[in-house]
Amino acid sequence: MKKSILFAAFLVLHSISHAQWVVVWSDEFESATLDESKWKFDIGGNGWGNNEAQFYTDSPTNFSISGGEATITAREEQFTTNDYTSSKILSKGLFDVKFGKIEARIKCPMGKGLWPAFWMLGANISQVSWPACGEIDVMEHINNDPKINGTAHWDNVGHVYMGGISTLDASEYHIYAVEWTSTNIKWFADGNLYYQLNINNGINGTNEFQLPFYLILNLAVGGDWPGYPDATTVFPAEMKIDYVRVYKDQSEASIVESELGKISVSPNPTSGKLTIENFSQNKLKSYQVIGLDGKLKQSEKLEINQNEIDLSTIENGIYFLKLTNEFNQEITQKIIIQ
Question: Which domains are delineated in the chain?
Answer without folding.
Answer: 21-249 (2.60.120.200), 255-337 (2.60.40.3080)
